[in-house]
Amino acid sequence: MITEDARELLATGAVCDSCLGRPFADRSFGLTNAERGRALRTTVALAADDDFEPDEPTNCWVCEGYCGTFDAVAAAVVDALEGVEFATYQVGSQVPPLVEENERLFREDAGLDPEVGESMKREVNREVGRRIGAKTGTDVDFDRPDVLAVVDLAGFDPLETLESDSVTSHAVDVQVNPAFVYGRYRKLERDVPQTEWPCRECGASGVQLGDDGEEPCDHCDGTGYMYETSVEQVVRPHVVEAMDGDEGTFHGAGREDVDARMLEEGRPFVLEVKRPRVRDPDPAELEREINAAAEGAVEVDGLRLATYEMVERVKEHDASKHYRADVEFGDPVDREAFEAALEELSGTTVEQYTPQRVDHRRANLTRERTVYEIDGELLEPTRADVRLHGAGGLYVKELISSDDGRTEPSLAGLLETDAEVTALDVTGVEGEDEPFEREAYFRDEPREA
Ligand SMILES: [Zn+2]
Ligand SMILES: [Zn+2]
């Protein structure tokens, strides 16, 4: 009987309405625990025809006053988030072990299950969260909030807070989750890596030790980097600045060789911004800014605000690639033989043993990859233009050269002459089963074409 239980709980000592209501938290959805507690206290007093005597959190032996501090805690969280843009939040809390022990004793002393109803921790999270939402016009998100506030109740004295109505700032820790911008990049010049490439010799410091002390590193001409720029270095600073974040990380959907261009549709990427204070920059504006500053070496396209899941999407989504290659042959090649070789390769699954040029720390193995389509034009007896569409992971340079027989079949093998890719362009990266760009992965509306 609920009134009986309430009477037993009240007999344990002075308790506040929230603490009295919490063991009954699974009853009457839509009430706060304080409202449940107040109603039970009233019912018990009426039934016994006793004088009504409320107990404030200040006197509560269970929460020791914490249930009266929700407003002050929420205000401290909102203060800590000053200047940070967010649409969703989540609150976590640490409850002092002594208070958790009180909660158990409270129920046990009244003859109830020590776990019955709701825990103090859940009440703090919900009540503080509700107040943050009301003050800032934002919504709770238990899955992937923009910001996360963790409240350490042991970090302040509840009775002092009940007097001063404020909470020391070190009791509240706010984390701002990263924000993401998706796009496709084109690399219009060769010898531009996708991500920045620090010099190994000097550990990116740009200096080496000479006879007369420090001098510019020979290996990188004192720049600290192996290449002047990279796609990452072109894109990152603008996105980080537009989102007023602390730093950025570039995630590409695979990568082309440094000496290959990336043309036409471009390659999907996500730029992740840590601790953004702005979450909704204008992607069109950002795109113009990046392209103007890149001066033609790199271009970006189709920038949109993306969800957290888009990082895994660009990294894991199976994609096929389109290529264009300049090919040179060791001996003159007959046009019919050239066309017959391409026909033979088209639709074929090739076996590729790990290429000699690939990092030797990687395990050697044979992979099978399909050449969906290959086509080309013999420009001169020793020179051809080849276009192909292949499964992700196909080694294109080796498909042409055979890599001393490590790829089988190959263009060189079928023509029985040396063949070498002298210039390679990636002309498309597309999802095998479905496009990278599904609306579920975006936070903004599609732009008008
Ligand atoms: Zn209490
Ligand atoms: Zn160096």
UniProtKB/TrEMBL annotation:
<dbReference type="InterPro" id="IPR055174">
    <property type="entry name" value="Pus10_THUMP_arc"/>
</dbReference>
<feature type="domain" description="Pus10-like C-terminal">
    <location>
        <begin position="180"/>
        <end position="430"/>
    </location>
</feature>
<comment type="similarity">
    <text>Belongs to the pseudouridine synthase Pus10 family.</text>
</comment>
<feature type="binding site">
    <location>
        <position position="323"/>
    </location>
    <ligand>
        <name>substrate</name>
    </ligand>
</feature>
<dbReference type="InterPro" id="IPR048741">
    <property type="entry name" value="Pus10-like_C"/>
</dbReference>
<comment type="function">
    <text>Responsible for synthesis of pseudouridine from uracil-54 and uracil-55 in the psi GC loop of transfer RNAs.</text>
</comment>
<dbReference type="GO" id="GO:0031119">
    <property type="term" value="P:tRNA pseudouridine synthesis"/>
</dbReference>
<dbReference type="Pfam" id="PF21238">
    <property type="entry name" value="Pus10_C"/>
</dbReference>
<protein>
    <recommendedName>
        <fullName>tRNA pseudouridine synthase Pus10</fullName>
        <ecNumber>5.4.99.25</ecNumber>
    </recommendedName>
</protein>
<feature type="binding site">
    <location>
        <position position="395"/>
    </location>
    <ligand>
        <name>substrate</name>
    </ligand>
</feature>
<feature type="domain" description="Pus10 THUMP">
    <location>
        <begin position="74"/>
        <end position="152"/>
    </location>
</feature>
<keyword id="KW-0694">RNA-binding</keyword>
<dbReference type="InterPro" id="IPR005912">
    <property type="entry name" value="Pus10"/>
</dbReference>
<feature type="region of interest" description="Disordered">
    <location>
        <begin position="430"/>
        <end position="449"/>
    </location>
</feature>
<feature type="active site" description="Nucleophile">
    <location>
        <position position="257"/>
    </location>
</feature>
<dbReference type="GO" id="GO:0000049">
    <property type="term" value="F:tRNA binding"/>
</dbReference>
<feature type="compositionally biased region" description="Basic and acidic residues">
    <location>
        <begin position="437"/>
        <end position="449"/>
    </location>
</feature>
<keyword id="KW-0413">Isomerase</keyword>
<keyword id="KW-0819">tRNA processing</keyword>
<dbReference type="GO" id="GO:0160148">
    <property type="term" value="F:tRNA pseudouridine(55) synthase activity"/>
</dbReference>
<dbReference type="InterPro" id="IPR020103">
    <property type="entry name" value="PsdUridine_synth_cat_dom_sf"/>
</dbReference>
<dbReference type="Pfam" id="PF22023">
    <property type="entry name" value="Pus10_THUMP_arc"/>
</dbReference>
<dbReference type="InterPro" id="IPR039894">
    <property type="entry name" value="Pus10-like"/>
</dbReference>
